[in-house]
């Protein structure tokens, strides 16, 4: 449960930034290197690496080093922007119902 | 019309409805009035809605057309959710819009319906309607890949059973 919440927070956190949503949209059309992404979004390499690492932690993208180039593609969850949001929403409902269930259990007989 | 239905032990039943919706069913071991109170009294909502995170209920105008705005505060950040109530039928049904601050104007219409079961438990049916089938399908697929509720194996079994 705790793990699930952390991953959900990760998803919300990752998606709360417009650049990161743009990166997912771009990767939905195919792989790109960090350099290409930095160029596209007019950012420094360091700035882009930070965004990529947040998305990677959330499982939304994966990176692979091929020669001297680090290539990015959509992660195991293969989520893009809106789809990721809907997924997070559905996970959220499930988690809320877990907590509602626990709440109803612990307040049983209180009335 | 239900296209797929996959039961996951101890959790929710998730299915797609028509082209643009999904629905989750869950049975709670409590009478309908208790579940309704937990869902409609702010001091009770605050104890579960935030999923363990601190919840600040910024607005709660529980009437048709009224606004609601709930904000979760966790170590990972602050997330606001809000919407307006479209329909409220006491002890039975709440229909509202649902938006997350991070994706403004991506609005889902959610319906929560409570059914009293003969054995004293309550079935909560939560359905959500999205604006495009693509959004809904993305959710279903990602749900399957993430394994949160579904698995390809379970889907295969259901589809096989349907012939």
Overview of the molecule:
The complex is a heterodimer of chains A (111) and B (163). Chain A has 111 residues and is an alpha+beta fold. Helix content of chain A is 63%, strand content 13%. In chain A, strands 1-3-2 form a 3-stranded antiparallel beta sheet. In chain A, a hairpin with a 2-residue loop joins strand 2 (61-66) and strand 3 (69-74). In chain A, helix 1 (2-15) packs antiparallel against helix 5 (81-106). Chain B is an alpha+beta fold. Chain B is globular and about 40 Å long. Chain B has helices at residues 32-40, 42-45, 133-146, 152-162; strands at 2-7, 13-17, 21-28, 54-60, 67-74, 77-89, 93-100, 108-116, 122-129. Chain B has one domain: Alpha-D-Glucose-1,6-Bisphosphate, Chain A, domain 4. Chain B has a 9-stranded antiparallel beta sheet. At the A-B interface, helix 1 and helix 5 of A face strand 3, helix 1, strand 9 and helix 3 of B.
Précis, in short:
The complex is a heterodimer of chains A (111) and B (163). Chain A is of the alpha+beta class and 111 residues long.
Question: Secondary-structure blueprint of this entry?
Answer:
The complex is a heterodimer of chains A (111) and B (163).
Chain A: H1 2-15, H2 18-27, E1 32-33, H3 34-40, H4 45-57, E2 61-66, E3 69-74, H5 81-106
Antiparallel strand pairs in A: 1-3, 2-3
Helix pairs in contact in A: 1-4, 1-5, 3-4
Chain B: E1 2-7, E2 13-17, E3 21-28, H1 32-40, H2 42-45, E4 54-60, E5 67-74, E6 77-89, E7 93-100, E8 108-116, E9 122-129, H3 133-146, H4 152-162
Antiparallel strand pairs in B: 1-2, 2-3, 3-9, 4-5, 5-6, 6-7, 7-8, 8-9
Instruction: Sketch the major β-sheet of chain B.
Output: 9 strands, antiparallel
Q: How much of the polypeptide of chain B forms β-strand, as a percent range?
A: 35-45%
**What is the number of E strands of chain A?**
3
The span between the termini of chain B is 17 Å
Query: What's the domain count of chain A?
Result: 1
Count the domains of chain B: 1
Number of helices of chain A: 5
